[in-house]
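Attaching the record inline, Q. Sequence:
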Amino acid sequence: MKTNVELCIDLKTHMQNDVLLKPGKNYPGILRREVPGEEFGPDDGRYTFIETVKPAAPKHNPQVYSCELFTITLRDDGRLRLNVKPIEAGPDFSIDSFALQMSDEIRRALPGLVGEGR
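Structure, as predicted:
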């Protein structure tokens, strides 16, 4: 019966983030069986693992402004998007007060984000 289980190997690791392999953690990378006599010597069953790290994905719609009631993000096409935070409409909630506070915060946010003439 053929098996793909190696019970005892010599493993050399090249890690990017952790100094030692952590139990139970998966690592992306390349596992290479060394050619006898190349780096380890004439023995067989020697491997090198090189951890690969995925490049960070570009952040889409980065946040350019945040305040109590909303955030503003910059879309890929250059437009600004206002994102209202969840509203706590309790017994003391006033629509007029909320609208005035939102208006004041928008007036403070936009001058630094839009150019003249917009």
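The helical segments are 95-109. The two ends are 75 Å apart (CA to CA).

More tomorrow.
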